[in-house]
Amino acid sequence: MYTEEVMKHFRHPHNFGRIKSPDGIGRIGNIACGDIIHLYIKVKDKRISDIRFETYGCAAAISSSSVLTDMAKGKTIQEALKITNKQVAERLGGLPIHKMHCSLLAADALGEAIRDYMSKRNLSIPKELGKRHERVERVMRALGEKYKEQGK
Questions:
Q1: Per residue in 43-54, is it b (16+ CB within 10 Å) or e — as a string?
Q2: pLDDT tens digits, the chain, 152 residues: what are they?
Q3: Are 94 and 3 spatial neighbours (Cβ–Cβ below 8 Å)?
Q4: Residues 6 and 92 sit within 8 Å (Cβ to Cβ)
Q5: Which of 28, 51, 77, 102 is catalytic?
Q6: Active-site residue, from 33, 104, 139, 140
Q7: Has domain 4-149 been given CATH number 3.30.70.330?
Q8: Is residue 19 within 8 Å of 40, Cβ to Cβ?
Q9: Per the count of CB atoms within 10 A, which of 38, 92, 115, 117 is most buried?
């Protein structure tokens, strides 16, 4: 079901863990499957100098987070914002159609971390990033309501 590349990143994820005093944090979850990603970035000279993640989820979610961090590290903020979930899935050698949402979660977590970084520095947030954030906020509210109903 999964490619060799997916399994490689799942078994030995790159850039796993937290960053002490991150410049930006992205949090995203999926109400349907329960996957949750926390992504942390450090920015130096407008480049992502360090990036780490913590993911609670399936092999596809962990692998997507791992490969995304490899793709974004060293990129400028503008370059990193261009990383798509399709590119994440392609780098993994493909994902089953019912697991493509995992690559979207990873890309959205990066967008949220960058938005957080820009917001903290009063930088102008690109319109498209603002729209992505609104969609993510709706999802996260729904996820929070689901867990509240379950008493978690």
A1: beeeebebbbbe
A2: 899 999 999 999 999 999 999 999 999 988 778 899 999 999 999 999 999 999 999 999 999 999 999 999 999 999 999 999 999 999 999 999 999 999 999 999 999 999 999 999 999 999 999 999 998 888 888 777 765 566 65
A3: yes
A4: yes
A5: 102
A6: 33
A7: no
A8: yes
A9: 92
In this structure, the number of other CB atoms found within 10 A of the CB of residue 100 comes to 17
Contact 60, 99 (CB under 8 A): yes
Structural domain boundaries of the chain?
A: 4-149
CB-based contacts of 19: which residues, under 8 Å, 6+ apart? 40, 41, 42, 50, 51, 52
Model pTM score: 0.91
Contact assessment for residue 120 and residue 139, using Cβ atoms and an 8 Å cutoff: no
